[in-house]
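Our example copied in:
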Amino acid sequence: MLLFDIKSCFISSLIPLYPPEEINAIFSYATEHVLNYSKLEIHQNLHKNIPAEAKKKMLGILNRLQKGEPIQYITGSTEFYGFRIFVDRHVLIPRQETELLVYHLLKNTPGNTSLHIIDLCTGSGCIAIALAKKLRKAYISATDSSSEALNVARINATENQCEIRFIEDNLLKPSGKYQMYDRIISNPPYVRNSEKQYMHKNIVNFEPEQALFVDDDDPLIFYRAIASFSNQHLSAEGMIYLEINEKFGNELVDLFAKEGFKNIAIRKDLNGKERYFECTF
């Protein structure tokens, strides 16, 4: 069977689920995983037969994709800030939007810094790992309430040769031992339960609910916890970087201002949505 025919199967089978450009990206990711082809090699080999075992694996991937399972969970990995990150259904799949959150912190942090940084609600550890790779002299810590998520994060830290202190703790009721930090960064749960109806089923049905959703009657629960944590553990002139729900920018400004934080800024993502919150102590 030609690789071109496999691609045609992907397109015809997945068009009800994904836009064409995303299907092309999924096909490329699956082909890289099964055949170890680069994007150029995929193009060069489209009209060549692929081995029977490779065909079987590609069609098996397609079958799982048709049920809505994300390609990242099927292949077991994704890329974040240029680094390979292992993922399974215990952790969120890292998004491009979160890469920009990391970018904003790095933009305001010297590369040779020995500052102390903590990533709250780390999940796969992607944020902490990107920071550890880019800020080689920094001391990086990361927390999560899920032991399964922390197991994934530890694997990623080992695979990427990063030294990170992981702390299993519930941000809403913290009991761990913490020091003072110069940077606090987090991508906490912020999607309201009522917003599930507008989300793709590959997110709602497969990604961990506790890492995504919050009750509609208290959508800022994690941000209040971050403000409280920061009041105790953010150093003088330290900085906070948060990914946020675009609908609650003004409320977050009020929340952190009342807690005594200053230099508050809301920044937009690549789609023009208010997605990032910054402030200092």
Notes: The longest strand covers residues 234-243. The domain at 91-280 is CATH 3.40.50.150 (Rossmann fold). The mean pLDDT is 95.
